[in-house]
Amino acid sequence: MCVPYLLIHNALSPALFNIALESVIRKVLIQAKGIKMNNNNDLTIVAFPDNIVLIAETENELRNTTSILLSEGKEIGLKINKSKTKYILLSRQNHNINYLKVDDYKFERVQSFKYLGAEINEYANSHEEVKKRLMAANRYYYSLMPLFKSRLLSIKSKITLY
Hints:
By secondary structure, the chain is α+β, with helices and mostly antiparallel strands. It has helices spanning 13-31, 59-75, 127-149, 155-161, and strands at 35-36, 42-43, 45-48, 51-54, 86-87, 99-102, 105-109, 112-115, 118-121.
C-alpha cells in the first residue's frame, strides 16, 4: 500500500503526477466539448506540466468541462488549487459575470493572466504583448551596441551576435 504523503519526497512523484493527470485529461477529452478548429476537431484542453487551460465556447460548456475535470481528478486523488485557479472570458462584449460557480468551487474572473510567458487578456488582442517583446528586443540590442562598435571583435562575431 502506498502512503500518499511519502510520495512528495519520492523521485518518481513528478512522473506519477503526470501519468495521473494524463489519464484525467484523456477522460475529459472524451466527455467534454471544446471549440471547433479548422480541421473540425475540438480544442478542449491546453496542458503544460502543471498548468491546464480549459477552452469552451459557452459558459455552460466551460462549467461542464470543469465539472468533469473535478470529478475525474477526485476519483484518483487530484485536487484543483482554489486560490490559483482563475478564468478569463474572451469576448468583444461586456459581461458582468465575476465568478464561475462549479460544484463547490467558485472561480474568480480575471481580465488578464500570464500563461507560459505570454500575456493573455480578455479582449484577445496582443498589442501589449508585442510592445513588451519589442521593448525587450530593443533593450537587448542596445545593451550589445558597445560590442558592435568594438574593434576587438571580428565582423564574423558581430554578425553572430546580431
